[in-house]
Amino acid sequence: MNLKPLGDRVIIKQDQAEEKTASGLYLAGDSKEKPQTGTVLAVGAGKLDKEGKHLPMPVAVGDRVVYSKYGGNEVLCDDEEVLIVRADDIYAVIQ
Fold first, then answer.
1. What are phi and psi of 30, to 5 degrees?
2. DSSP the chain
3. Cα 71 from Cα 88, distance rounded (Å)
4. Cα 16 to chain center, whole Å?
5. Please, are residues 18 and 89 in contact by the beta-carbon 8 Å criterion?
6. Handedness of CA 49, 92, 67, 10 (dihedral sign)
7. Which residue of 1, 23, 26, 53 lies most exposed, with the fewest beta carbons within 10 A?
């Protein structure tokens, strides 16, 4: 991947949308809801504090995360769609 996130941004590979409901019904392509989970591919250096020092990022490469439904931008990189979000748009790390 030839993208490097800047500041407090994080690049996430979104999980695949479910193709079946819990009851076993298959979903049409348009009715699939994009998941709000994914895997962190890259992290920026972090925000700067008042003294110009980088604050630590709350996530690391390889973490599985839950993020905001409406946060971030989808970008095509190396024929793969990824999501670039701010660290503030990440709600939790899946353990």
1. -75, -25
2. ------TTEEEEEEPPPPSB-TTSPBPPGGGPPPPSEEEEEEE----B-TTSPBPPPS--TT-EEEE-SS-SEEEEETTEEEEEEEGGGEEEEE-
3. 9
4. 12
5. no
6. positive
7. 23
